Design the sequence.
């Protein structure tokens, strides 16, 4: 199963309907920084699709900050870390107050490792093999949803639009 990275980098596009009406964005769920959330879908061990809304951290600055300094994380939300190339960078929980679980995902969209991380810990967390993406969620979310090593994930960023008279 492949992660559709091209959809992550697509910006907001203005459009016109066939009848000449303009399309304007409707309310899109946003993260703590006001950025639109992206829906990712995991396929668990039973073949069920489990959706998660994530903030995307795809710059060095966003990846470095991650979920630091937050006091909570909504139940069905997380953060997707997108790297330029596969590697084995480690994560830690320094200045992160919420207990998290992290899934490491290789370039084709398969989970290669999942680890639990304790708040404010400087213990390093990384998988034994290279990965291109990582997803952080509230601790236990992966286990509760039957997601483990070998589960697939796909990403699709859509911007809902409503057509209004123009």
Sequence:
């Amino acid at each position: 199963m492949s992660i559709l990275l091209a959809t992550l980098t697509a910006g907001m596009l203005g459009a016109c309907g066939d009848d000449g009406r303009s399309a304007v964005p409707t309310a899109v769920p946003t993260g703590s920084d006001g950025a639109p959330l992206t829906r990712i879908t995991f396929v668990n061990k039973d073949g069920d699709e489990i959706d998660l809304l994530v903030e995307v951290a795809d710059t060095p600055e966003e990846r470095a900050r991650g979920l630091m300094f937050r006091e909570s994380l909504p139940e069905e939300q997380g953060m997707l870390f997108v790297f330029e190339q596969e590697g084995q960078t480690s994560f830690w929980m320094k200045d992160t107050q919420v207990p998290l679980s992290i899934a490491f995902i290789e370039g084709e969209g398969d989970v290669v490792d999942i680890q639990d991380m304790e708040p404010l810990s400087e213990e390093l967390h990384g998988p034994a093999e290279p990965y291109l993406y990582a997803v952080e969620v509230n601790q236990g979310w992966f286990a509760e949803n039957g997601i483990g090593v070998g589960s697939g994930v796909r990403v699709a960023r859509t911007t809902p639009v409503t057509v209004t008279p123009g």
